[in-house]
Design a protein that fits this description.
By secondary structure, this protein is mostly beta strands. It has strands at 4-6, 16-21, 24-29, 39-43, 52-55. Residues 36-56 are annotated as: Disordered.
Length: 56
């Protein structure tokens, strides 16, 4: 899987990015629309559900 940038509100800034790596899939999310990542989610086992979340 290539990295995927998602602009869900159409303002030209990515609101989410999904990145595949050796440790599973990581998602970065801009929760407040300021253009900065606020939360990192990890799916380590590949089941599609976050196994961990941390603020950035």
């Amino acid at each position: 899987m290539d990295d995927r940038l998602i602009d869900s509100d159409g303002d030209g800034l990515a609101d989410r990015v999904l990145c595949a790596g050796d440790e599973g899939v990581t998602a970065y999310v801009d929760t407040d629309g300021d253009g900065h990542w606020d939360v990192r989610l990890r799916d380590a086992d590949g089941d599609g559900a976050a196994d961990g979340a941390s603020p950035l």
